[in-house]
Amino acid sequence: MESPFRPDVLRDKAALVTGGGSGIGFEIATQLARHGAQVALMGRRREVLDKAVAALRSEGLRAVGFDGDVRKQEDAARVLAATVEHFSKLDILVNGAAGNFLASPEDLKPKGFRTVLDIDTVGTYTMCYEAMKYLKKGGPGRGPSSGGLIINISATLHYTAAWYQIHVSAAKAGVDSITRSLALEWGADYDIRVNGIAPGPIQDTPGMRKLAPEEMSKGRREMTPLFKLGEKWDIAMAALYLASDAGKYVNGATIIVDGGLWLSRPRHIPKEEVKALSKVVEKKELAAGSGIRGKTNRAGGKDQPGNSYDNNMSVSRVCWMRNGSTCRLLCSEL
User: Fold this and answer.
1) Tell me: the pLDDT tens digits for 106-129?
2) Is residue 38 helix, strand or coil?
3) Domains, the chain, ranges and CATH?
4) Cα torsion through 302, 329, 171, 118, rounded to 10
5) Span 194-219, pLDDT tens digits
6) Residues 197, 236: contact at Cβ < 8 Å?
7) What's the whole-model pTM score?
């Protein structure tokens, strides 16, 4: 789809995107670069980063990748410093790294709950904290009165309540609070704008294509008021709006991009089916050679089947839906 923005709308801007090697994060990085920005991607898997950077460079775009874990402050500091050293400045930070899995509260161990908060909430704050000195007015490569931009990728789960998502709902509520608080304080003190984007179910992701085939698309569309699902492009366009001069007076807002799905949230899977469905996902992932290590049906870190935990605690976002007697899995990796 053709972008409504000028191709040079972000000319010579420098951006860092966490979780930028795949999924929504990669699409955001791609669109930022196609519109003139030079982009750095941060992620834990070197091979994924290398592939993503190569894809961007094949289009003649300016891109570089740095491996790191947003949960580790030393990694955050190192990657941000390397980005500024490479580009001489930082204008835009996109916090897209996230984790999710499906679990009933009574089956969710505190370890699993904490893991998602560490990635989503603490990881987002850690990146913001380490980026402030580069994004504030008067920072490296910045004028004395012009600050940068932070975009935090959130969700809508906590706007009402979502079945089997207590951990993610809590984590994203924290992300939204970070967005508002930093927008107030850093906007006033450092001219840094801080905004969020809350995606809904996005159809053109690797996990969605693998676990919810196109034959099920009609049923998925019927779950949303607009009778269609979003694309990664939709999220990237929201990011472009915030990063461009069109969004220069937007601060402290979280833009919902979900087709209105959050306005109506039915009970999409009976509780008794949650564990059985997790086993189905685990078998599919193992058959595909993805390297998932699952041993029990209890949600709590490395032993949770249906998650994408590896030795480095990688996580997939999993969203389950139910329409009649057919259960569908919507999964998108960040």
Assistant:
1) 999 999 999 999 999 999 999 999
2) strand
3) 14-263 (3.40.50.720), 271-332 (no CATH)
4) 20
5) 999 999 888 876 544 543 445 545 56
6) no
7) 0.79
